[in-house]
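Fig. S4 source data, part A: sequence.
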Amino acid sequence: MTAPDPAFDHAAEDLWVFGYGSLIWRPGFEFAERRPAHILGMHRSLCIYSFDHRGTPERPGLVLGLDFGGACRGIAYRVATKRRPATLKYLRDREQTTAVYRELVRGIALDGKPERRVDALCYAVDRGHPQYAGRLTHDRQLQIVRQAHGRSGNNRDYVLETAKALDALGIVDHDLQVVAQRLKNSPEAHVGPG
């Protein structure tokens, strides 16, 4: 697991990006290929307080991070070499607004027979960052998500869209499913901006 070196931005090769949350249902960049993939040694978790996209510093939301341990299924995107600089700029502007993620290059496995391993850009949580929430109970996650809203919309929609996208891919994420199901079964309680 390594942070990209300065030459990474200008490498003359296609870029692979691993998506595990909103990048699955809203990548926002042009890609040449989209493949189911998985990563070992990391797992998807609602473990980041959102002060920007899905909450505010006064009323934080809760978003997904790649945390250490376990495994995670998601989507790998191959970006053509010519789109590499623009895609990296877009991802950094989107993912690093508060620098809560560590930008890493990790080996991932593309699903298929046989599996193919590639190095991919991943955004893993920085456990030392003040926005790292750690492992919260489902009740606490639900409480936070129901009341939060940020510049990208309400937190409830973020969780439900991600759960729906994972379901469509046949990806089981028990913890996220529990929170999403409870959100579906409870009245909306989020508060809009302002």
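Fig. S4 source data, part B ends here. The chain has one domain: 6-183.
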